[in-house]
């Protein structure tokens, strides 16, 4: 099977939606140093563990996997693999590796490293939130249950050949091999640093980490032995953390910052949009994104379906969209409109405060109740949480807001009885890969409802999991329309259980300094979220 036959079904849809700003046509230049700012520090750079939008693109610049995507697109391409073959039964992939690829420590990457890396992520002791992505591999269940540490389906054929056997044909597997969780790591470095590997990452990527001063900065330097000729272009990237977004933008106006990593807060959006100096420097892109409020289905009284439905009916989504200056559209289901499986006929829960009050009364909470709403502390997320708080107060629910750093919100969501409600803003789901299955397994499927996972609703519907598995087994090209319809049914049926309040599908808007070059697509990259650092450059 050729790679072209596996191209994403979503390329044309994304291409028609993604980039409002013009493409900068110029030849890339080598050299230069840039500064990127973030408000919060980075929790980890371990590819098996890191799972938020802030560290996602950083990890992609430090590590590689067997597969990746063409820069700025959703089209799969070969990465550490120089070729692959698929068996006639559609269950075994045999990858040929590029010879001569070196880790940052100087050692050549081999097939044994691929096997080790996949087994490490699958091992429950690693506590990877992405382990469930590897469940299609033969032997995964035994590893996940602690019976063994070896994936039976992953075999080292020789130093440059590895085969991976699946339990059934799987339409998403090559996408999975392009995830950060499938990044190849050197065993000796993981064993050397143990739990601190995330602070001392060693990969094969375009950049290597040379300095990390906690709470202040991280410094990436160009990997002079990177296997892709000509990239990266930039010599060093300094990520300054602890920078308030508004201060970062002021510094960008003074040419002291090159990319404001947290984007443009709504409070500054109109100023930048209407300022001629920045119109050519702003980049707007639609995302495979849904922002949602999770309702922990295991914590009373949210374990009551009528309560969860009432909360869905209480939230005024149009008002929340206005808070971010209309840079989104209200959502009524988990899937974003650009994703196959999205049901344009589905109406969801209508905004109906009086109906919500009646449902609460039926559930035995006519006088309401008190709960907690967790939110990331970067503007505008606290203001969005306050709007939800007011909406809930209108039906008698007192939601006490806990505004925390991103990493702390993520940690709370991953503990089953800690966070009754989590507003996902700033951490909201952007597809790891462009397929509807990715909006299920990690955030709504049973595999994600585990300690440290991202299914903060702790929702597990085994019947819908099975239906999703059936859809993922439909790998043939002539099955894709039926597959999309089946996935659509999964999501609308899940909404009958109301584990979420889908709020909006947001556009990402960022701004860079006039020094920066590269296609606008790279600054709102749909896969290297938010920025593809490997291909941008300094003019």
UniProtKB/TrEMBL annotation:
Keyword set, alphabetical order: Peptide transport, Protein transport, Signal, Transport
Example of a GO biological process term: peptide transport
Record domain Solute-binding protein family: where: 76-448
InterPro entries the UniProt entry points to: Peptide/Ni-bd, SBP_5, SBP_5_dom
Keyword Ligase found: no
Molecular function in Gene Ontology: peptide transmembrane transporter activity
Signal peptide residues on this chain, from the entry's feature table: 1-25
GO cellular component terms given for this protein: ATP-binding cassette (ABC) transporter complex; outer membrane-bounded periplasmic space
Similarity field: Belongs to the bacterial solute-binding protein 5 family.
Protein name: Peptide ABC transporter substrate-binding protein
